[in-house]
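Q: I'm a student working through a structural biology exercise. My instructor gave each of us a protein and asked us to get a predicted structure, then write a short paragraph describing it. Mine is Helix-turn-helix domain. I'm not confident about reading structure output yet, so if you can add a plain explanation after the tokens, that would really help. Here is the sequence I was given:
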Amino acid sequence: MGFHMSRNKLSRLYLLNEFDSAPESALFNQQTLAAVLSCSTQLLERNRWAGTGVPYIKIGRKVLYRKSDVLTFLQQQKIYRSTSDEGRAVNQ
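A: Happy to help. First, here is the predicted structure for Helix-turn-helix domain. I'll explain a few features afterward.
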């Protein structure tokens, strides 16, 4: 049996590598951010509409996310050890 990786998985790995190797001032589109956060672009759109989620920049019609804002957002997320901990965040 040979090693096989789907085109979508390779594309996601490429986007993750691009994000990881970029400087903190780099800007990314929502497709890259969706790969980084393991979510859909539709969720990112809903979060923007609701005023939640990662801060973004709008240039014309283009929505972009700064890497430093993404990293800050991720650091501020609550961490749970299990689903029974959802009422309280784990201190780290």
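A: Here are two points you could use in your paragraph. The domain at 25-78 is CATH 1.10.10 (Arc Repressor Mutant, subunit A). DSSP finds four helices and three strands in the chain. It's a good idea to check both against the output above yourself.
Q: Great, thank you!
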